[in-house]
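request received
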Amino acid sequence: MTEPDSPPDLLAAIIGAPAGSPIDHIRRDRPDIVRHSQGSHDVLLSPQDPGGVSPAERALIAWRVADLSGHKALAAHYRAMLDHRDKTLADAATDARLATILDHVVRLTTAPGTATKAHIDALRATGLTERDIVAISQLVAFVAYQVRAAAGLALLVRDAAA
Amino acid sequence: MSPKRFTLDPVDWSAWMPPVRAETATPIQLQALAASPSATSEYFLTLAHDVESLAERSPLFHAAMYVPRGLRRAERELATVVVSIINGCVYCSSVHARRFVELTKQPEIIRALYDEGLDTKLEPRLRAIVDFAAKLTRAPMDMTTADLTPLRGVGLSDLEIHDLINAVAMFANANRLMQTLGEPVVEGGA
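response:
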């Protein structure tokens, strides 16, 4: 499902690099990065088969990573996606399964070197499959990529406009 | 945090869940694995559990690290070693430190970063790259256009800076997958 207001090149929209701008020109020189950065976003947030992690939960996870990272524009993007999918999910963290997932999300975002096998076992104990756990980890790792790509490329956009 | 043992020796990696087995993988999983840096590594066999994301991530990783022109290969490798040291990823730092040494024949640069830390004395171009990689890793939202000045000062073009940003961002990603789905296995280590 395509979100009604999700731009086709999210990173370009976030950093303010419209078609024809100097930074757009550089990005077009690396088409695989543009294509597969957007492709990663699309399959992680809106997979063909979401398995045991719902589309709304995926939006909640991405929003938490962007918000914890302090990236306001990305956080707003994922919050709008979350609200579109499920307005009440953000308040449902008392649910033990979701709380375990969000613990993992926070750890992976802020202190990735502190993860242990016990954390994976805790996720499995909630009924998540191996595929679900890999998908959650890929999603957190992708938004960590996206935050830094956006923050870095925005410097080039601002500098070109100065 | 316990001290990490960063090394130039090869390091293995062991998953915290059963990886996909090549014998029972689906055709789509095999296709995504074939486009990954190693179709037989336990790491990529683990990522193959979620084949849709692996099929996008492998070409993204490949482009960030190996796309021609732009930032030199060795300098992308160095940037990823810096990110991996900050994030504590012993496996990633070993792999990419060895790639840097293969390309430059300068193991002393890696040893200095490991032993003396990221503030060790470096030639100006590498100093600028290391500083930018470290700040984009630790505090991406604190960066300003002033952080571009040292890179421009040593002659990096906007295309090279674009590539540096993507290599650094890619290892925010790689370090998180490597350290949350399994652990490094160091020969003779703990």
